């Protein structure tokens, strides 16, 4: 078809609201597109004229609909406000598309392949500050070598964005640059969506964007020198889905983001140079799901950085969280993590193991938070277990002075850190039993006890009952049986031993009683 005939065919199709299909049943993969000749060629200038309404035709409400075309020149629709809906389906646009500051009633780029001239820093698809109710790029391809991004939505405002199955690649920057993007309903990056980029800006960049929903189920993001998903300050009203085989090579970064819900069930995250999930300061109104085959491998301070996160409910299974290679360090950083419901799906013992063995260092807040939700649920026994575990962790990793550590260990043994005062009572009973046993054994006939002058038979051996009474007097700090007035230690070796042992047992009895009272009243627990 001659160029003039092709142009007229497109004008007729726009007037009639029909799709001009130049590919027919032929292949529309990238290799086929690059081989298309003049029978597929449409000039970018013609498309611009049609969108601007500069051709003498009355466009059908269906708009401009073109399939299988090779478009020569960069399609420049910048700064245009038009009522013409545009569909470029399975088209080859080697010099790219400029939508900056334009406004259209709808844009379809499904299956099209975009590039940019060698040496150009313009993104293949530049939609900075672009406005449209709907924009779709299902199965589209964009290849770039520019720091600006392969596809750029900087400050754009869309009703819906659908990039399901798209392939975006950039060897010098982000694949999808959507900083400050606003999408009223949903942004879809699903169904084997693939993006490859480099650098600290991230492969997919949603920093400070505001979306209704973000669905990346089954997507694959790769960045060897920065985050795979960079979404610091992102706001999502409903939910973020990173499920169903979602894979990220490079960190998923959600620092200070605010989401309705975060679901990463079955996701696989990997970062060889830092956290796999970096979400310090994240706020989630409802729930965070990191379970059901969730896998994360990372390095740095922790694999999952969840410090200062606030969430309604937390579902965290760390069985698939590992350190990369031979890296040493913690699995999770959760200092300041706050949640309203009991964490699931693992039990309390696993949580305590996580806090003790897999965090960067001792911190009181994670234990206090865990205790708070169990206290609210009426689990008083579990609360005691949590607070005792906190105290043990403080002794091991809290940097206490030697003296404070020794005292803490003693109160832990004697009182369960004030949460089990019955231990001091058992110690008192042990002292009492030792006193009675010593008095009975050492005070036998010819031994260390004999009747005093106040007894009816002075200097005679004391009976077993009297020796038991003397033992009780030694082991009881306050109550006395009066046996000591009738039976007293002799000057023999056994008697002297009993006298010295009595002093020590009295001291131990008073100490045990004092500890019991202190633990019972909470004095130790408060310290």
Helix and strand topology:
Layout: H1 3-16, E1 20-21, H2 30-34, E2 41-43, H3 44-52, E3 64-67, E4 70-72, E5 75-76, E6 86-89, E7 92-93, E8 97-98, E9 107-108, E10 113-114, E11 125-126, E12 131-136, E13 141-144, E14 151-152, E15 157-162, E16 167-170, E17 176-177, E18 182-188, E19 194-197, E20 204-205, E21 210-215, E22 220-223, E23 229-230, E24 235-236, E25 240-241, E26 247-249, E27 252-253, E28 258-259, E29 262-263, E30 268-270, E31 277-278, E32 283-290, E33 295-298, E34 302-305, E35 310-316, E36 321-323, E37 330-333, E38 338-339, E39 344-345, H4 348-357, H5 364-376, H6 380-397, H7 402-415, H8 422-442, E40 449-451, H9 464-475, E41 487-489, H10 493-521, H11 523-526
Helix pairs in contact: 5-6, 6-7, 8-9, 8-10
Structure description:
- Keywords: Membrane, Transmembrane, Transmembrane helix.
- This protein has 527 residues and is of the alpha/beta class.
- Helices cover 28% and strands 26% of the residues.
- It is built from eleven helices and 41 strands.
- The longest helix has 29 residues.
Radius of gyration: 39 Å
- Could you tell me the number of beta strands? 41
Can you list the strand order of the major beta sheet? 5-8-11-14-17-20-23-27-31-34-37
Structural class call reads alpha/beta
Report on the biggest sheet.
11 strands, parallel
Arithmetic mean of pLDDT = 87
Q: What is the share of helical residues?
A: 25-40%
Question: What is the CA–CA distance across the termini?
Answer: 90 Å
Instruction: Determine the number of helices (DSSP H or I, runs of at least 4 residues).
Output: 11
Residue stretches low in confidence (pLDDT < 50, at least 5 long) are none
Strand content: 25-35%
Global geometry? rod-shaped
């Amino acid at each position: 078809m001659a160029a003039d005939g092709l142009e007229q065919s497109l004008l007729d199709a726009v007037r009639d609201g029909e799709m001009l299909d130049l590919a027919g049943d032929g292949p529309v993969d990238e290799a086929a597109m690059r081989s298309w000749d003049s029978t597929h060629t449409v000039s970018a200038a013609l498309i611009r004229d049609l969108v601007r309404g500069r051709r003498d035709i009355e466009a059908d409400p269906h708009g401009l609909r073109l399939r299988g075309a090779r478009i020569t020149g960069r399609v420049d629709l910048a700064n245009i406000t038009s009522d013409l809906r545009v569909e470029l389906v399975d088209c080859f646009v080697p010099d790219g598309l400029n939508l900056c500051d334009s406004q259209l009633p709808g844009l379809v780029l499904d299956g099209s392949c975009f590039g940019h001239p060698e040496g150009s820093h313009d993104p293949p698809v530049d939609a900075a500050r672009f406005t449209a109710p709907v924009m779709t790029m299902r199965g589209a391809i964009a290849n770039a070598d520019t720091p600006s991004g392969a596809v750029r939505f900087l400050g754009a405002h869309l009703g819906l964005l659908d990039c399901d199955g798209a392939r975006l690649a950039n060897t010098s920057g982000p694949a999808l640059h959507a900083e400050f993007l606003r999408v009223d309903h949903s942004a879809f990056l699903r169904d084997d969506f693939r993006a490859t980029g480099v650098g600290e800006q991230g492969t997919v960049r949603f920093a400070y964007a505001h979306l209704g929903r973000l669905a990346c189920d089954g997507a694959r993001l790769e960045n060897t020198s920065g985050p795979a998903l960079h979404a610091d300050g992102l706001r999502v009203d409903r939910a973020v889905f990173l499920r169903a085989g979602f894979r990220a090579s490079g960190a998923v970064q959600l620092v200070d983001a605010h989401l309705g819900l975060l679901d990463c069930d079955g996701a696989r995250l990997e970062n060889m140079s830092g956290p796999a999930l970096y979400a310090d300061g994240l706020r989630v109104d409802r729930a965070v799901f990191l379970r059901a085959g969730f896998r994360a491998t990372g390095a740095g301070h922790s694999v999952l950085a969840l410090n200062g996160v606030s969430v309604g409910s937390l579902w965290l299974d760390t069985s698939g969280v590992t350190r990369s290679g031979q890296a040493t360090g913690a699995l999770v950083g959760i200092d300041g993590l706050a949640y309203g419901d009991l964490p699931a799906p693992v039990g309390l013992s696993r949580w305590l193991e996580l806090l003790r063995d897999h965090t960067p260092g001792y911190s009181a807040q994670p234990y206090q938070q865990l205790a708070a939700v169990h206290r609210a649920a009426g689990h008083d026994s579990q609360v005691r277990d949590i607070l005792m575990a906190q105290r043990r962790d403080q002794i091991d990793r809290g940097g206490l002075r030697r003296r404070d550590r020794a005292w803490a260990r003693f109160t832990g043994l004697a009182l369960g850190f004030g949460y089990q005062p019955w231990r001091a009572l058992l110690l008192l009973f042990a002292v009492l039993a030792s006193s009675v046993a010593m008095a009975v054994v050492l005070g036998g006939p010819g031994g260390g006890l004999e009747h005093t002058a106040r007894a009816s038979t002075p200097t005679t051996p004391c009976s077993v009952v009297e020796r038991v009474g003397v033992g009780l007097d030694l082991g009881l700090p306050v109550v006395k049986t009066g046996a000591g007035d009738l039976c007293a230690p002799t000057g023999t070796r056994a008697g002297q031993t009993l006298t010295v042992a009595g002093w020590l047992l009295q001291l131990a009895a008073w100490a045990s009683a004092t500890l019991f009272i202190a633990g019972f009243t909470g004095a130790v627990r408060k310290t």
